[in-house]
Amino acid sequence: MPTLSEAASKALLATHGVPVPGERTAATVDGAVEAAEQIGYPVVLKLCGDRIAHKTERGLVRLQLADRAAVEIAAGELLGAAQPSDGDVELLVAPMLRANRELIAGVHRDPQFGPCVMVGIGGVLAEALGDVAFRLVPITPTDAEEMIDDLAMRELLEPFRGEPAVDRGELERILLGLSDAARSEPRIDSIDLNPLLVVDGRPIAVDALVELVD
Amino acid sequence: MPAPAGLRRLFDPRGVVVCGASSHPGKFGFVALHNILSQGFEGRVFATNREGESILGVPTARTVSELPADAPLDLAFVCTPAAANEGLLRECAQRGIAAAFVTSGGYGEAGEDGRAEEAKLVELAEELGILLAGPNGQGVVSTPSNLCAQIVAPYPPPGRIGVASQSGNFVSSFLNYAVQTGVGISRAVSAGNAAMVTVPDYLDYYADDAETGVALAYVEGIADGRAFFERILSVARRCPVVLLKGGATAGGQRAAASHTGALASDDRVFDGMCRQAGATRAASVEEAFEAAATFATQPLPAGPNVAVLTTAGGWGVVTADAIVASRELVLAPLAPDLLAAIDEELPPRWSRNNPIDLAGGETRDTIPKVMELVAAHPTVDAILYLGLGIQSNQAALMRAGGFYPGHGLERIVAYHERQDARFAEAAAEISDRWAKPILTATELAVAAPDNPGPAAVRASGRLCYASSNRAVVALGHLYRYARWRQRRGLG
What we know:
The complex is a heterodimer.
Chain A: H1 6-14, E1 24-26, H2 29-39, E2 43-48, E3 61-65, H3 68-81, E4 90-95, E5 101-110, E6 114-121, H4 126-129, E7 132-136, H5 141-149, H6 168-184, E8 188-199, E9 202-205, E10 208-212
Antiparallel strand pairs in A: 1-4, 2-3, 2-4, 5-6, 5-8, 6-7, 8-9, 8-10
Chain B: H1 4-11, E1 15-19, H2 28-38, E2 44-48, E3 75-78, H3 85-94, E4 99-102, H4 111-128, E5 131-133, E6 139-142, E7 147-150, E8 158-165, H5 168-181, E9 185-190, H6 199-207, E10 214-219, H7 225-238, E11 241-245, H8 259-263, H9 266-277, E12 280-282, H10 285-297, E13 306-310, H11 313-326, H12 336-343, E14 356-357, H13 366-376, E15 382-386, H14 390-400, H15 409-434, E16 438-441, H16 444-447, H17 452-459, E17 464-465, H18 468-487
Parallel strand pairs in B: 1-2, 1-3, 3-4, 4-5, 8-9, 8-10, 10-11, 11-12, 13-14, 13-15, 15-16, 16-17
Antiparallel strand pairs in B: 6-7, 6-9
């Protein structure tokens, strides 16, 4: 199934109100360094392209790059790791965000019920926990509120380890944005916001993947 | 969507004809006629039989066309082989029959040829303007008409639960619970292959049916999920819907790239759909029945705040745990003025907290008085009442113990039994007066159903819950539905 690159996925979802980090793209090592200087260290570097759906598994994500030299090395390595089958690629330079909590959200096209919005507890245990809730597109603000309340671990949304409570309003707006995107853009098959990092209480989609219908 | 007129004839026919009635008590054609006759159907009963013999005192005709010209026929209950049914439907149409319940098998459940036959039958029924229920269904029950047109038992007591099921055996399960608990049924139908009339069609009819207060359904395969959602949503706006779902549905392929897809089990999507549509989803058949029975017999709570009223400590503690664990219902602390008012009725050793543990401090009128105080208080939305029937349980032992009626036993036994009946009656009256649910739970409901306590709960038309945990689950369903309505401005 065709996918949009991370940058294109985020650009699309941003038009539906999904908050994404202030990121830049670069085609070269020098471009990546320039972007990193503007964003401020530390940064994250990813190799990004329409045909690259699983960056982490291929080692195409470099975290915690603290200075110019680190960015130069990582950018060179990532560009060198591109394979012919990846097609057009670019570097995505993003601020290194810190958070203790990860959520997951998305859109799934169910064979019986059609497109559904999902929200859940994210992180490495997300699939094992399976603490997620679904609603059929389109959802109302009340549906968004209620599906968050469905989560078994919803206490994680309360003040946590010195961090403020998750901004429920913002999270609800993200879910409404996903519903809106799924409804207004029929070419979308699925959306993954994974993780939806909770930074100072605000959920931000630090990774996004839009799959398109064949 | 079938016209309600046909469903009206299905549930409240002026006359029924059993097509393919048999003189052999082992055949469905006999059982159907027997069940209709034996449960006192209010309309006229006719039957057809190839030999034209008299069955159970009913003279039969060989064909529908040969039935008396003035026979008021609305419903054909079809027990004939599939091959005969096309001709039969045409005859039924000529006689003005508006609805046919088809028990015959050999249709959609029987492979490709059967599916083709079924499609033909539906097409014909549509052309003739006949509502076709089934085929391959067990029958229809409608207590307002004393109609027991089914090839299985039981016949339930009358009540306000409307049942529709994709599995006939689940109809029987729900009806058996109705018999056991005394919380009765308005209509029940086994949708069979649901060739023309689907489970949502029946639920839609129940939503506007004055005899029905809650719709209870068992569903498994759902052909068009989106349409199902829209129908259930529409029903839930008008009346509570309790769903029991069986079986994993055809999941379809999961896209490898999507974590969302990997997490989207059919069950989770179905669960979310239910919550969105306002339907109550139950995890088991008894939970489904008890939820429906609670909707049918208790007012909706205005909020989550539950007060537990108990005559013994341990029950209250366990019930409090269940309320807290529900994460939706709330065990609210007692308001100071309510506390002070209860102080007036009890010796100082009572719990002075929620659960309200009377700690054996009750005298003749304490329980109704305290219950009234609690129900009247604006901070309380619902009451769970525990401890009914204890004294009558002892009374039963005294009755059977060999010393009865001497030694003053007759008097004390009568007093205990009268008190428990009074308490059960008070729970229903106070609940009605304040329009707040009051659920009574005791294992005596099943351990000693004739105990005057549980028996009086049944007589009041309400469910006596077999445990406080089950009452908490049922109340949780009511609260969720009430909240769903409130949040959507449905009052």
